[in-house]
Design a protein that fits this description.
This protein is mainly alpha-helical. The chain has one domain: Rhopdopsin 7-helix transmembrane proteins (Up-down Bundle). Helix content is 69%, strand content 3%. It has nine helices and four strands. The strands form two sheets. It has a two-stranded antiparallel ribbon with strand order 1-4. Strands 2-3 form a two-stranded antiparallel sheet. The protein is globular and about 60 Å long. GO terms for molecular function: photoreceptor activity.
Amino acid sequence: MQSLVAAGFRSGHVALQNGMTDAELFEYVFGGDNTLLALSFVINIALAGITILGIAYLGRNLTDPRSKAIATVLMLISVVSISSYTGLASGLTLSVLEMPAGHPAAGATTAGENGVLTMWGRYLTWTFSTPFILIALGMIAGSNWTKILTSSAFTIAMCVTGLAAALTTSSLVLRWWWFVLGSIFFLVIVYVILVDWTAEAKRAGTGDLFRTLKFLTVVGWFGYPILWALGVEGFAILDVAVTSWGYSLLDIVTKYIVTFVAMSYVVEEPDTITGGTDYGASISGPTTPDD
C-alpha cells in the first residue's frame, strides 16, 4: 500500500514538472499576446471580490443563526475562487504538460516548451468551492446533513478525478477513464439535486427558489465536462484561451450569480430559511418556568 501511495506522489511530482518557472508562466500569460487568457483570470478575481463584499453588505443585518450560516457558506464560495484565480494569474497553479501519444495536442509546444498549458489550479477551485455550493443548496432545500455531506464527498471525488484526468500523461486511455469516472460521480450529484432535494424543497416551502438555483447549477455544471472534452485537455477542438474563458463563464454563472440569487432570498429571512435562536446549539436554550 505504501509503495502505491509513493508511486502516486512520484507520478504527480513528475506530471507537474516543466521547464517554465512561475515567473515565466506569469510572463507568458500577461506579457505576450495572451490578453484573452489573462482576462479570464483577472475578471474572475474582480467578480469574486465584488461578490464577497456584496454578501457582507447584504448580510449585515441578518439576525437568524441559520440565515447567517447560509450567508457564510455562500461567501466561502467566492473566498475559494478569489484565492484560486490568484494562483492561476500568478502562474503558481499553471504547468506545461506533454500530452500522451494519440492526443490531438501531442507534440504541441508552449512558449518554446514541449506541451500545452494546463490550468490545474482550476481543479483546486472546484474541489473546495463546489462542496460549499452543495451545502448552501442542501440547506435551502431543507435536506439533512447526511445527504449534504454525502453529496459534498462525491463532488470532491469528481473534482479530484478530473484533476487526475488533466495530469495523466502516461496514457490517453487512462485520461479518458478518469474523465468517465468523474462523470459517474457527477451524475450521482445531479440525481440528489434533481430528485431528492427538489422534493425536499417543495416540502420545506423553498421550491420556487430551489427551482431557479438547481437550473443555474445543474445546467452550468453540465457545461464543465462538455468543455473538458472539447478543450485542450480532451479533443483539443478549442484553444487554451477559449477553454479558459469557457470555464470562467461557467464559474460566473454557477458561483457568483447563484450566490446573489440565493442571498437575495436569505436576507429577507423568511420562515422557510430561519432556524430560530437554538439553531446549531447542542443544548436547547433556557425556558421560562411557569408561574
